[in-house]
Write a structure and sequence with these properties.
Number of helices: 14
Largest sheet: 6 strands, parallel
Number of strands: 12
Distance between the termini: 62 Å
Length: 356
């Protein structure tokens, strides 16, 4: 058949090639289930659209109150590999379901976050995934006022309103990491971390595990600071110099970069002089020597789960909100020394208990 007129194929062109009406072609390509179309005719329309390279005008559809198949993801920063992997997981599910992803960085700025939310609503996105910049519960009410489905990712906020959430079970993960060190004979364990409410459950889990193991809190110093490499270096030095510790639990992988550089600069060997566990599993924890035992956060799974929840809400297949807490897996490498006297047998028993 000769090429149909026009530079960009239209719905009329599809209908002409499929030998049907424009209304029928629209019903098929819009996946409407309230209008009966035979399977043979539906396939004919889809083949015609594929042959012509037809794509629906999403802006025009949105003006008619229809979905644009456009969703937004707002994260605090792009430099953090955790959020990179969250976005990758979310994008995979979005693409598989025919949605286009808009990715925005709020850079931890509440004002920037508000501007993005309202500007994206003006662009008629269908819904949001958001990692809030703070614990301000008002964000839930403000997002609800936009009348668009959304899900909160990674950082729960205190709000009387119900909302969808996918987050890490950070407290349980910290407990698991401390328990691992205790089973390897460590009783003087230091903790360094980011002094921020969004990661406070990590410190709470550390403190709870220290108490339940019967350790002396005064022999398990805690030092908190800013989220930076320089802060990590300073915190590690303070914790090591002011506490006679045999193990260090690093509560954030970004702080861990500075901490490990400081430990090496002080001439301290890992794990011979000091055992280390770090919260998070970026690439650098795997390539340093020895590799660091860590609490691996299921970042991509978080993105996939949150996007699946959002798309289900957009399609009306779920009516109630849900909160999903993802487990963090302990990954054993070479940064923890067994000083319990049980040698290899103890290490194998511990690893098996976490793989179960």
């Amino acid at each position: 058949m000769s090429q149909l007129p026009g530079n960009r194929p239209t719905l009329k062109d599809v209908a002409y090639l499929a030998d049907t009406s424009i209304a029928t072609a629209s019903n098929v390509l819009s996946d409407r289930d309230d209008k009966y179309v035979s399977e043979e005719l539906a396939q004919r329309v889809r083949r015609a659209a594929e042959t012509l390279g037809y794509r629906p005008n999403l802006v025009a559809r949105s003006m008619k109150g229809k979905s644009r198949n456009l969703v937004a993801v707002l994260v605090p920063e792009f430099w953090n590999p955790v959020f990179t992997r969250i976005v990758v997981g979310a994008e995979q599910v979005a693409r598989e379901n025919g949605y286009l992803l808009l990715i925005c960085s709020t850079e931890g700025d509440p004002q920037r976050q508000e501007e993005y939310l309202h500007n994206l609503a003006a662009q008629q996105v269908d819904g949001y995934l958001i990692t809030p910049v703070s614990e301000d519960g008002g964000i839930i009410e403000r997002m609800a006022s936009l009348n668009l489905p959304f899900a909160v990712v990674d950082r729960p906020v205190a709000s009387s309103a119900d909302y969808d959430l996918v987050a890490y079970d950070m407290k349980s993960a910290a407990i698991r990491g401390v328990d691992y060190l205790v089973r390897h004979g460590h009783r003087r364990i230091g903790f360094i971390g980011w002094d921020a409410p969004v990661v406070r459950p990590r410190l709470e889990g550390f403190a709870l595990a220290i108490r339940d193991a019967g350790l002396n809190p005064e022999e398990c110093p805690v030092h908190l600071g800013e989220l930076s490499r320089d802060s990590g270096a300073a915190l590690a030095r303070e914790c090591i110099e002011h506490g006679d510790i045999t193990a260090l639990f690093i509560g954030h992988h970004h702080i861990g970069e500075g901490a490990m550089a400081q430990i090496a600069g002080m001439g301290i060997g890992v794990p011979d002089d000091l055992s280390v566990v770090v919260f998070g599993n970026p690439t650098w924890t795997q390539i340093v020597m020895p590799g660091l035992t860590c609490m691996d956060m299921p970042d991509a799974e978080m993105g996939r789960t949150a996007m699946e929840m959002l798309i289900a809400s957009l399609r009306g297949t779920r009516r109630t909100t849900a909160k999903v807490w993802l487990d963090c897996k302990l990954v054993e490498r070479g940064s923890v020394r067994n000083i319990s006297g049980n040698g290899t047998k103890e290490t194998k028993e511990v690893q098996n208990s976490y793989d179960a």
